[in-house]
Amino acid sequence: MQQRTGSGAGERHASIILDSYRRLLGKPLIATDADKPAAEQLFEAPITVLSHGTEQDPVLNYGNRSALGLWEMDWSAFTSMASRHTAEPMIQAERRRFLDAVAEKGYIDDYSGVRIAASGNKFRIEQAVVWNLYDEDGAYYGQAAAFARYTRL
């Protein structure tokens, strides 16, 4: 699984994820070492982190090693998938309402829901944080999610 191929995989994208989280929640997403690239640290983080862009039907543009493993995809497949395909079709309306609430409030820090991997395997994410991403100029950049807990179903 490659880390730095495709949109969003670089240092700037990792910084936007980390900086947006810090600004909105007032604490760091992960402990970082200033001597190592942020992109490398985020990719190898012990939590699952993913993000999507600002398209009308947002496409995933980042998944760390944990996300790629959980969704059972390589970088290329993961970052070409519409983020709505991470959830089952029958709960799409619930997911849309949730993402709209995040867009309005800036973040939600207690989300739980069932997700589906490429193989069809299901898992429940627990206590996920979902937050808006803003670039260094304050322009809306998409949304990200992070969680440490999940249960395979």
From TrEMBL:
<dbReference type="Pfam" id="PF08670">
    <property type="entry name" value="MEKHLA"/>
</dbReference>
<feature type="domain" description="MEKHLA">
    <location>
        <begin position="12"/>
        <end position="151"/>
    </location>
</feature>
<dbReference type="InterPro" id="IPR013978">
    <property type="entry name" value="MEKHLA"/>
</dbReference>
<protein>
    <submittedName>
        <fullName>MEKHLA domain-containing protein</fullName>
    </submittedName>
</protein>
